Every structure is written in structure tokens, then in C-alpha cells.
Predict the 3D structure of the following.
Amino acid sequence: MTINAMMASRNMSMYRLAQLSGLPKTTVIDICSGKSAISGCTAKTVWKLSRALGCTMEELMEESAYDAKSGRPLCADYLEKGLPAFLKASIEAMQASWAVEDSGIRDLHWDAVWCSLNADINEAETEQLITPEQAAHLRTKYLRMEERND
């Protein structure tokens, strides 16, 4: 189970994990986002995290939950945590619109919903409410855009 899955099962935010573990917020954010591989952390850091999460160090270090090359969690759910309410509402509207379109019925408002979500993602990224990585993930998943590697 990934650190993000453990946090989700305990309804715990990264900020709360930082408080409980006594680690800096930036350290917890880097680990949860995959920027820092948990396998590269000191034993003391892993111990503090495992103690705060109520699990063993071994459970926390489970390698199968992380990409060996990047150190990021295999499950990208962490990229959808802590989204602003306006962005969540736009995502829900887009999901409903895609459901109509995918059923073979034409949704006459699909383009407006798509543009609204795209604008909300851009606004959230510009206002630094979400990271560029989160924005790219949301565009790929909900707008069905291909990821660009410029």
C-alpha cells in the first residue's frame, strides 16, 4: 500500500502527516508526490512516517507500490488530493458530460463544460492552488488531452 493510500484510509492530509510525524511539510510533500523516493529516505524519516501512520516501516517501504525509476507512487490518486472546490465541481460536470458523450448521445454543452474545466485547471495552476504536475494529470484524465513533452 502506498503512503498516499495509507493517508487516504486514515483520512489524513499531508499537512497532518507532517504534524504527527514531526517532519517538515516539504519533506512529506516531496515523498507523497514522488519527488523524493521513500527508499532514499533515512531510517529515521521512515520510522517517523510509519509511527504517524500506525504501520510498520516495512509496510511503508513496500517497493511494489512505487515506480523503481522515478520513485513516484504507481497510483496517481495523490494528484487529485486537496483540489479547490471550484475545480472539483468542474471535474464532476466534465465527468457527467463525458458519460453522456460516451453513451453515444450528443451532449450539446460538452464544449462549454470542457472549456470551463480547462479554464479552471489553468486558473488553479496559475494561482498555485495546484502543481503543474497536478494540472497535467487533470488535463490528461478529464480533458482527455495527450501529455506534451516539450
